[in-house]
Structures are given as structure tokens and as C-alpha cells.
Amino acid sequence: MKEKNLFGVPPEGRQKLSEVKVGDLLAIYVFKPIDGIVAIYRVISSPFEHNEDIWGGGRYPYRIRIEPIPEFAQGYTKPIPLHLLFGTFSNRKGITIEPYLRGVFLFKLGGEQLQTLGGIFRKSAKKDNKVSS
Predict the structure, then answer these.
(1) CA distances to 2, 17, 69, 84, 125 from 92, in Å
(2) Rg of the chain taking only CA atoms, in angstroms
(3) pLDDT category, 45, cuts 50, 70, 90?
């Protein structure tokens, strides 16, 4: 994903991916072993189908082009747990795990969650800069 600036889903995820629009933000959450949000990307293309075998085994033919957002990645090294955005699992209304994506959460971040993420990334970047100075 990082090397090609692409995000892809299998055929079962085509409908969900069609909901993604240019300008949307993707919070990249890794379950195991990290269990947290590790990056934020901006969507820079409409969904498209391509069969170039990027990920091996012909997987994920439905794709979008993405770009990293520097202010959300600069100096940040620790994953962000989902509970900082949504509280406990019982409070995560409207969030579903799509089994065909092997545990990938697909949900829209609201303005409040985006502000929280921005604050976490900025705070961490400042702390990391103080440590390295």
C-alpha cells in the first residue's frame, strides 16, 4: 500500500469501496499485532478495477489511489487505539467489520474523530521532536 499508494479490496468489497469519494480520508488500522491506527491517507482517485498482481494471488482488483497526509504521519510512531476515537466496543454504533476484508473496519470518520486524530498526531509529533532535539 505504501509503496504503490494504492488501497484495494477483493470483489466482495466492491460495493463498499464504491462509497469512497475523492478527498475522503482513510484511517489505516492494523489489527494484529499492532491493534491501532498507524496512518491517515487521502483518497485521490475514484474507485477503479485493475488486475495487475500487486499484492500476490490476484487479490484486491478494486482499488483507489491514495496519498499520505504529512501532518498525520510526521514524527508519529505509536498506533492510535480505536477507543480514543469511539470509546468502548459497546459505544461503536454504525461501525461494522467486513469479514471479506479480513477484519478491516470501514466507517466514516466524523469531524469530532478527525479533530481527535489530528490532536493526537500533533501532540505526539511535538513530543517526539522534543525527545530528538
Answers:
(1) 28, 21, 25, 11, 28
(2) 15
(3) very high
CA 52 and chain centroid, separation: 22
Q: What percent of the chain has pLDDT over 70?
A: 68
Q: What structural domains and CATH numbers belong to the chain?
A: 6-132 (3.10.590)
Cell numbers placing 112: 469530532
* DSSP characters over 21-85: -TT-EEEEEETTTT-EEEEEEEE-S--EE----SSSTT---EEEEEEE-GGGTTT--SPBPTHHH
- According to the model, what pLDDT value does residue 131 have? 42
Residue 133 is predicted with a pLDDT of 40
Q: Specify the pTM.
A: 0.72
The answer on pLDDT for 71 being more than 60 is yes
User: Does the structure show a pLDDT above 90 at 43?
Assistant: yes
With H, G, I as helix, E, B as strand and everything else as coil, classify residue 18.
Answer: coil
| Alpha-carbon dihedral angle through residues 63, 69, 73, 74, given to the nearest 10 degrees | 150
Angle of CA points 54, 55, 61, to nearest 5°: 70
